[in-house]
Every structure is written in C-alpha cells, then in structure tokens.
Specification:
TIM Barrel, two-stranded parallel ribbon, hydrolase activity, acting on carbon-nitrogen (but not peptide) bonds
Length: 274
C-alpha cells in the first residue's frame, strides 16, 4: 500500500487575519512546498483520481499527492492560482458558501470570523480554469454536534448553492474542522457527495475511505523538515485507520458543550486526529 499525502491548506498570505494565521503559509513557503513535492518525485493528481482508485478504478502513479484548500480564502485566486497554473498542478478548493458575497447582496452568514474570501465570479473562473470546486458546508459548523435536520441543511444547501452557480454537479465535500460521524457521513452520501475529506493528520491511500479521506494539515508551524518527511511518505500513519477513543471522547465533549450553548471553537492542536 503506497501512502498518498493529501495536503490541506487554508490561507496562503503574508498578512492573514489573526484568527487564521496559525493555519496560514506565505506564498514563498507554498512555492517551496511545490518544489519539495516535485523534488521528491511525487505526481500531483486531482482528488477525483484518488477517489476513483479507491473505488477500484485506474491505478494511481506510483508516488502520488493531492492538494486541497479549505474555506475559500481570496488569496487562493491571487497567490495560489498563478503558482499552480504555471506548474500545471491540480487542486480542489472547498467553499463555505455562507461567507461568499453574491453580486449586490449579502452572504448567508457563517461562523468564520471576517476575512477576504473568494467571490462567486472568482469561484466560477477557478472552475473554468479546471480547479475542482467542492463544498465545505454553509456556515462552517461542527457537523457532528448538530441535529440531523441542521446537518442536512449544512450539507445539502451547500451543494445546491454551488451547483446553481456553476451550472454543473459538484461531488467533493470536506467536513469543517475535519469533524464527522457515521451519521454525518451517511447524510453526505445521501446528499450526493461522492467523496468527503476529514483531516486525521495521516496519509491517505487507495484503501482509504472515500467519505473520510485522511489529510495532512499544513500549518504555519509545519517545519521544512516535517513537510519533506511527508513528501517521502514518512512521519505520519496511513489510512485506513479506526476512529480513536480520543476522537470519540472529544466528540462527546464538543456535543455537550454545544448543548450548553458553549461550543468549542476550532479544532484541537496539530497532534489530534479528528
């Protein structure tokens, strides 16, 4: 089984809002990451190709990687797109639709603090350029703490909005904060999503779960040495992995906090495996 690093980025900026700064890398560092990926002999493939291989489709190149970007920050359009198009590297961009400003209107709203986000016109342009546009819920809620009805709204309305704007189906979903549960994954499948990314801080593989794809989170404090290890298939476990007792316990804790009206804000530290 060959480990497949599925990298998850958020903002790529030199001046991010304070709240997203721990999950931000600069354009210079991101360009260095692309060079390290190439130097390691990895072929960056579209996420859909990894999913197809999981389902018994055509095999991947011997050493493959996938790039994903969560939330929908505007710097993907200005800073990341030129670097990827110059290198002809594919990527999937997961959109939190509640933060996107429609022309002449107001966004639906989200739980994310203010930050420059992609516009619908930019999203349509990225789609036309060949980047895969995926869903990341409406408000960026922790889906596994919601009622079934609210989770359905977050998952289904997100898909419908993207498809209305892009005029074609979308298939890739990513769970906000990487959090899911068996019920949430079932809802995502019933909504028509054919893949969904978690985080798990682990490598994916062709035997991974299409509705709980493991990813490696790239943070501001991810060292060059750690990133190089990842490109060489080292430094993290490989999926499929059973859900840990720590993850189950933390879900119960977050649900209890949500019921009390005191939700846990954001994901745990880099060592956790949601």
């Amino acid at each position: 089984m060959s480990a497949v690093p599925v990298f998850v980025y958020h903002s790529v900026s030199t001046d991010p809002p304070e709240w997203i700064a721990p999950y931000t890398v600069t354009p210079r560092v991101f360009a260095e990451h692309l060079d390290r990926i190439a130097d390691a002999g990895l072929t960056v493939v579209p996420l859909r190709r990894l999913v197809a291989a999981m389902r018994g489709g055509p095999p991947l190149p011997t050493r493959s990687a996938v790039l994903t970007f969560d939330d929908g920050f505007a710097d993907f359009y200005w800073s990341v797109t030129p670097l990827l198009t110059d290198r002809q590297v594919p990527a999937t961009v997961y959109i939190t639709t509640g933060v996107i400003h429609p022309p002449g209107g107001s966004p639906e709203g989200s739980l994310l603090p203010p930050a420059p986000m992609l516009s619908w016109r930019q999203i349509a342009t990225l789609d036309a350029l060949g980047f895969e546009i995926g869903g990341h819920s409406v408000t960026h809620a922790q889906l596994d703490t919601l009622s079934a009805e609210k989770a359905w709204h977050e998952i289904v309305d997100n898909k419908r909005r993207l498809e209305d704007v892009l005029s074609h189906p979308v298939y890739a979903f990513a769970y906000p904060h990487g959090y899911s549960s068996a019920a949430v994954r079932r809802t995502a499948r019933e909504a028509g999503w054919t893949s969904a990314c978690a985080v798990r801080n682990a490598f994916s593989s062709v035997t991974d779960e299409p509705m709980r794809i493991a990813r490696l989170m790239v943070r501001a404090d991810t060292s060059p040495e750690r990133f190089t290890q990842w490109t060489l298939g080292m430094g993290a476990p490989a999926a499929p992995l059973p859900e840990s007792l720590q993850t189950k316990g933390y879900r119960l804790y977050r649900r209890a906090r949500a019921l009390l009206g005191r939700p846990v804000e954001g994901p745990p530290g880099p060592g956790a495996m949601p």
